[in-house]
Amino acid sequence: MVDNSLSPHGGVLVDRVATQAVSAASLRGLKSIAIRDQIAHECVGIAYGYFSPIEGFMLREDVEAVCERMTLASGYVWSVPVVFDMSQADVDRLSLREGDTLLLTHESQPVATLDVEQLYSFDKQRMAERVYGATDANHPGVQRTYAYEDVFVGGRITLVNPPTINPPFDRFWYPPSVMRQRFAEKDWGRVAAHQTRNVPHAGHEWLMKGAWFAANADAVLVNAVIGEKKIGDFIDEAIILAHDALRDAGYFRQDVHMASMLLWDMRYAGPREAVFHAIVRKNLGCTHHMFGRDHAGVGSYYDPYASHRIFDEIPPIGIEPVVTLEWWNCPVCAGIAYEGLCGHQDSKQDLSGTLMRATLEGGVTPSPLIFRAEVFELVMECAQKYGFGSPFVTENYLRNRRPVLSFGPLS
Predict the structure, then answer these.
(1) CA distance 4 to 13
(2) CA dihedral defined by 355, 358, 361, 364, rounded to 10 degrees?
(3) Nearest-angstrom CA–CA distance, 235 and 197
(4) CA 320 to CA 318: how far, in whole Å?
């Protein structure tokens, strides 16, 4: 029997989608501003409850609490600021004031309204230091923070124009209320979430299988981060389709594995982002979340297992972390081995990003101890179909890729 007792973070699944169809005429006369992809993604995440209990872009007191205490002002654990930034020039041009309703548009189409509760500034260097533990602009999350404009606008949003999710992502789009219903239909009471921004190599496969055993789970939910990434990461299409291919090729049974997506622009915040990931997957209805080596990290900014220890430093948040050590290829064991069991550390062959890149760029079908053949072939197909010849994010891909989501005109 499915256990439906797992509540969303904060107790209630947020729903900020307009309850009735909104007409274009009803929005005329509102002050409006165009938003970038990141803000559009976050409007959707807020509206559909992925970020429960957040109902809009954070007020200053929430940002302060997140930075200093890793909570919202309400006291609920939260680890990464979700903010809407504007230039002072735009604030002045619009004569924007607290109490206004601001229309947010994307590619000239309406997306959401924002009830302006607060206009404020915040020390971006302090935000970076608290959230990322770094002030070095070479860190992609720090760089993103420094690029924010000088005014932050806090307030609740209402999604007035639900998005169209474009192929191939449309079949992996399950908002929290829908995902929870799918779990109920499948009778999945214990679900272990797998966060990913990579195509699955053999170590990822065994990470998922090990967590499935450790959690005594009914299923593994792959929840791939789809959104802006740094140059050199895998392209989004390859990530989600390759994970789905693992199941279709039989490496997971159809009834114990599911691939899905999360609209989120990676922050690479290491342990802080691990907490954020756990909260989002709790909102999706998962009971467990797996955390391997260097979760959400970048470069050498974080200890490889900092994302394990952080859950000992915060109150329980209602989803169980499943922490695992490294999986590697061991020629002595003649297969994939686990750091906690294998005694051949001197012979191990790391499944590193450098090895993955060399394997894919070489174009020769690798050993199944690196990539499953089905995954490798699909990633090569995605490179040609979606990546302009490369399975990795390039400037060309960022400029010319097909958008993940789009907003149509209102009647």
Answers:
(1) 13
(2) -80
(3) 9
(4) 7
Whether 197 is a known active-site residue: answer: yes
Tokens of 81: 């600021």
Residues 245, 378: contact at Cβ < 8 Å?
yes
Domains in the chain: ranges and CATH: 24-163 (3.10.400.10), 170-404 (3.40.50.620)
Q: DSSP state, 254?
A: G
Residue 191 DSSP SS3 = strand
Per residue in 137-187, pLDDT (tens digit) is 999 999 999 999 999 999 999 999 999 999 999 999 999 999 999 999 999
CB atoms within 10 A of CB 227: 21
Please give the single-letter amino acid code of residue 135.
T
Q: Is the entire prediction scored with pTM above 0.90?
A: yes
Q: Shortest CA distance to 284 belongs to which of 214, 227, 221, 210?
A: 221
Q: What pLDDT sits at residue 364? A: 77
Q: Which uninterrupted H or E stretch holds 382?
A: helix 373-385
Residue 196 bears catalytic tag: yes
Q: How far is 287 from 338, CA to CA, in rounded Å? A: 24
Residue 89 tokens, joined: 């020039």
Q: Of 101, 135, 198, 394, which one is the catalytic site residue?
A: 198
Give me 53's structure tokens: 């209990």
Catalytic residue among 145, 196, 283, 359: 196
The helix/strand/coil state of 235 is coil
Six token digits for residue 272: 């802080």
Between strands 288-291 and 191-196, the pairing is parallel
Identify the active-site residue in 16, 144, 180, 197. 197
